[in-house]
Every structure is written in structure tokens, then in C-alpha cells.
Amino acid sequence: MKLGVNIDHVATLREVRAGIEPEPVFAALICQAAGADSIVVHLREDRRHIKERDLYILKKVIKKKLNLEMSLASDIVRIACRVKPDQATIVPERRQEITTEGGLDVVSNYKKVKQVLGKLKKKNIAASLFIDPEKKQIDAAKKSGVKMIELHTGRYCSAREKKEQVKRFEELRIATEYAKKKGMHVFAGHGLDYYNVSRIARIKGIEELNIGYSIVCRAVLVGLDKAVREMRQLIKG
Ligand code: PXP
Q: How far away, in angstroms, is 231 Cα from ligand 1 center?
């Protein structure tokens, strides 16, 4: 199981004082050395954490995969085409949200999604769609031509009742199986932490987990190197 570490919230801390510390690029290098398989950043339209400058430097200095989470907004697409990350993950984005709330509705935004995928393809940027674990979204993703999807684990992670947890877990398991049968690469993420990750890591077919908030939170207390290594240990296998 591969681990992508999202370092957005290192930049969030920097932006609290609009200063220069902590440096997200430094954080990315620590994650890479601690065993992260990819570095994930979300260039949000309001630039609340990651900035263009971070992207350009990351692209130059990291050796592992750079995975850029991005909306369908044209100025963001333009920047992605200029930076050329190894992978672009298309996510929905609402200005007021605290974090990405649901998966991309590929069914309703099909035309726009296709258009953006075409632009990314022209630049040889591999694309993934961040979607809810639903058949209709997987079907639309497949039809769009993408080879990779990331399943939104948020509903599983925020479930408090046992019955709800089982239901949400089953949705993810079934969606993974369904997408694999269609020949797609399946990743997952959002809301995963040191307590809820093991179960998801055991779903056959999921190749990579993308985790940010919980790793950065733990890093504040134990250090980033240790936080990444502990997560690596939990999901290995
Ligand atoms: N995957 C995607 C597509 C995301 O948008 C995010 C949040 O930026 C994550 C994974 C990581 O979520 P979290 O920070 O809750 O671990």
C-alpha cells in the first residue's frame, strides 16, 4: 500500500502569520525521506494554504510523485498545465468549506471534466478523479477515460455509530471491487487517521492512501519524520 502525504496544513500554519515558516518544501523532503510515496498539495482557488510558489519549488526538488489536487477552475487548470505535476487529482471546491466536503460529481459536470482532462492529457499529466464511492460516479469516471480514481473516505471516517461505520466501509469495499473490475487504479483518502486507517488499508484493490491532516497534527507533537513512519507502518502490506 502506497502512502501519499498531503502537506497543505504545514502551509496553513505558515499562513496563520503570513510568514515563511514552517516551510512546506522542507516538510515535503522530510516526508519523502521518511517513506512517503508521493507528496500531495491542493492549490485552492483562495490560496488559503499552498501557493503557486510552493508548487514550482516542489516540482523542482522532490523526487517522488507530486500529486496536485485541483478544481476545474480555468486559472487553476492553467497553472497545473504550466507546473506539470506527475499527477493531477480533480476535486470539487467550494469557497466557504473548511475542507473538501464530498466527491466530484462527474455525472453532472461531465462536459467540463472531459474538457479539463483533455487539457491535462495534452501536457502528459496523469489524471485522477476524487469521487464518492458510488457506481454512477465510477461509471462516469470510466467513461471520461481516466485510469485512476480516488475514493472519498470521509463518510466512513466521520461515522460514529458502528452500524453506520460498517455501511460506509462496505460502500468503499464494493466501489473498489467495482472499479477494479473496470480496470481502474483505485486510491482513497480524506479524514483517515491513525485509528481508522488500518481497516481501509486492508481493502483489496486500493493501491494508495492520501493522508494529510492527521499526519500534520501528529507531527506537531512527535515530529514529522516519526508521524510519517508510524503511518507507513500502519498501512504496510
Ligand atoms: N485526498 C483528497 C482528494 C483531498 O482533497 C484531501 C484533503 O485535501 C485528502 C486526500 C487528505 O485528507 P485529510 O487531510 O483529511 O487526510
A: 15
Query: Looking at domain 2-236, does it have CATH number 3.20.20.70?
Result: yes
Q: For CA atoms 180, 131, 220, 29, give the dihedral sign.
A: positive
Instruction: Write down the residue that cell numbers 479524514 correspond to.
Output: 191
Are 175 and 136 spatial neighbours (Cβ–Cβ below 8 Å)?
Answer: no
Beta-carbon contacts of 203 under 8 Å, excluding residues fewer than 6 positions away, are 172, 173, 176, 188
Separation CA 120–CA 122 (nearest Å): 5
Alpha helices in 106-211 (DSSP H): 110-122, 135-144, 154-158, 162-181, 197-201
pLDDT in tens, 142-187: 999 999 999 999 999 999 999 999 999 999 999 999 999 999 999 9
Q: What are phi and psi of 186, to 5 degrees?
A: -120, 125
Q: What are phi and psi of 210, to 5 degrees?
A: -110, 120
What are the boundaries of each domain within the chain? 2-236
Side-chain-facing half-sphere of 168: CA atoms under 13 Å? 19
φ, ψ (nearest 5 deg) of residue 89? -110, 115
Cis-peptide, bond into residue 85, ω within 30° of zero: no
Ligand 1 centroid, distance to 61 Cα (angstroms): 22
Pocket test for ligand 1, best of 190, 195, 197, 217 (most atoms within 8 A of CB): 190
